[in-house]
Specification:
With about 425 residues, the protein is an alpha+beta fold. Helices cover about 30% and strands about 25% of the residues. It folds into four domains: about 90 residues, no CATH class; about 70 residues, Uridine Diphospho-n-acetylenolpyruvylglucosamine Reductase, domain 2 (2-Layer Sandwich); about 130 residues, Uridine Diphospho-n-acetylenolpyruvylglucosamine Reductase, domain 3, CATH 3.30.465.10; about 110 residues, UDP-N-acetylenolpyruvoylglucosamine reductase, C-terminal domain (Uridine Diphospho-n-acetylenolpyruvylglucosamine Reductase, domain 1, Alpha-Beta Complex), CATH 3.90.78.10. The chain has a five-stranded antiparallel β-sheet, with no helix packed on it.
Amino acid sequence: MEKQIKEQPCVILGIKQRAFLEEEFHPVRQIRSLIHRRTLTLLTAHQQHLVPHLLQCETRLIDPLVGDQIVDDRYDDAIHIAKVIFFYFCTMKKNVDLQPYNSFGFNATAKYFVEINNVDDLLQLINTPEFKAEKHLILSGGNNILFTNNCFDGIVILMNNKGIEIVHEDKGDVVVRAQAGEDWPEFVKQMVTKGFYGVENLAHIPGKVGAAPVQNIGAYGMELKDSFFQCHALNLATGKTRIFTNEACDFGYRESVFKHELKGQYIITSVDFLLHKQSELKLEYGNIKTYLEQNGIAEPTLQQLHDAICAIRDAKLPDVKQIGSAGSFFKNPVISAEQFDALQKQYPDIPHYPDAEGLVKVPAGWLIEQAGWKGWRDEHVGVYEKQALVLVHYGGGKGEDIVSLSQRIQKSVEEKFGIQISPEVNFVP
């Protein structure tokens, strides 16, 4: 059986960048030219380990060839060769500037940089000698990381796979699967538009879907774990996919198994959410009720709550296009009821929220503000004037400037209140 393949013009390495799609790629003419004329020379210089493999594939591929047609088994070899070459010369990049990929806007350079658009890309990556030899960083929007050095000496992996679909639906619930590279605020917006309850209070949190379970993101009385059903994650050592249930993720406050026991061992490729077609809205946390009252909304709809939270966040958080930040920098500390009672006697207006097992959660932003840090700044970094929980980069600074500032704030809060606060942002050395 034979297959007719459409020819495309040859550029750069003999293949147009997007000519690897089966309906566009002409393996008969282009692979022969690719290996013999230019690619073999380039591979000999830069990726010598590929040469024997490519020559072996080429031998199977080019005997015999008839016109513009190719036998099916050789066609698969051609596509494989093309993908390998594309990955090394078009996908894996060297010495990439990471400033556009971190919301603080600090200058940093990645030794290698790879954008992942599907699971096949990921499988290609983990089988490369570079991946096996270098440390790696999974970048999912860059909104919750702080580069403390001006160079990441390894591979930065940007997850950019897309897709949202309903995988199960009944009278009251739906299970929605979102690929890891989907934008989180856009995902929440789509769910609200469809009338699905469960993630609305997590609106406007920057980042991508794949990072949400790792951090167990949360806001306004809701956490990711509340709607998380399961996720698919690729084992970086074996290339096999594992399904993690809610229980298996061992969620905690801004914590999960992916930040501890399994850190660096898996990459989340998709997340399934259990959402509801009807549910009560959570209005108690923060100043949601105040905002709704000020805008004459007595009984908010799902859409109105979503829009209210977006407006509240916009009012107190900086636009990262103008001022670099990672949003909330510190976790809200959880203290014992006894410690809180003692503090409340000294500070009667201290805000607080009940937590599990009789503990009490205190807003870190309030503690930082009371310690006198709100609005503080030096030449390059500071504490945002509208929200003390947010550390900002005004430009020209380094990651270590934020590290130093955060440590001074931690020391100040502990001296004043006897409470230790810890960063929510991930430090990348």
